User: What shape does this take?
Amino acid sequence: MATTPNDLAQEVEWIQRVQAGDRESFGRLVERHQRRVFSLIFHLVRRRDEVEDLAQEAFVKAFLAIRSYNFQSSFGTWLARITLNHCYDYLRRERASRVRYFWQMGEEGRKQMEARAERPPKEGREGADERLARTDLVDQLLARAPADDRIILTMKELEDLSVEEIAEILDLNVSTVKVRLHRARKRMLEDWKKYRSKGPAPRSRK
Amino acid sequence: MRCDDFRMMVEEERADAVPELLRAHLEKCAACRSYAEDWGRVSEAFRAAAADPLPEPTFGFTDRLLRRLASPPGAERAAREFVERVGRRVAFATMLLATLTLLALGLPTSGPVREPASADLMAQADQASNSNGIVFADDTWVSQTGNPHRPIPQAGPSEK
Assistant: This one.
């Protein structure tokens, strides 16, 4: 990512070249931002096997839209917004196909899947397993959260973005982000409590 | 301050740096204390998940991406997408039309709204005449009362 004034100036030059039709300069932008894009996608979708394809599609979208980039926000923020929208579409599609798949399952398969989902989060194990258990818990909590909550929680808790950065990416004001974040956390904790006491609640709410 | 405000503070504060005001509230409010404990556990899980090694782009990622951008060109891609979109609509319309045609063919050919055809009228007339009596081959017929009738002979040329 561009951090020093020199980096920024160079980035602006690359962007202007891409806007003029130079694809090679886009390759330089990709190399500078790919780690951030990969990280955001991985934290949002939580699937390693999908990250590269999604990243490529997000970069293609960015390339096709780069003429509309007007330097109002940083290129990183603009790219994060495109990536986020792409992941949002993916999550909705993926969730819809999962529901269809569940309905297509036979009685036996459905019972097995329900039993697996009802298994409580693997907590209380020691050593290296402890970290895996925590990651597993996060996976489950995010998988059960509505897409909007999942996005805002991922950006704050996993990407470690500030409220101001999230506000810029989501094009919201800071106080709205704070309120949404608090509501998302509250909903997640309530869901977790229910999950621990009764088993899984309906998974998809959006 | 309401419990919700304290809970927002809980989410933003580190466990080892809780302000006095919040600490005092947590001591007397069991619900907020439970919320703080739950949040502590979940945020710890998030920290562990954030430390997961990130997937790296595989060798040649940028080159593959640039090749993809080079072909097909944007206009051609847009045209192909247009054809795909329109094609889907045409296929859908054809299916709909075929379904409607099949339904129309499957419906009964006569109904209360259809006017009877001339063949139907003739059949009805025959039926009506037959219901009044039985007609024999020599054109005599027996009415329902049982009296035989003979047709009136046609007037021929007068005999001289």
Observations:
- The longest helix of chain A spans residues 75-104.
- The radius of gyration of chain A is 20 Å.
- Residues 99-105 of chain A have pLDDT under 50 and may be disordered.
- Chain A has two domains: 1-104, 120-206.
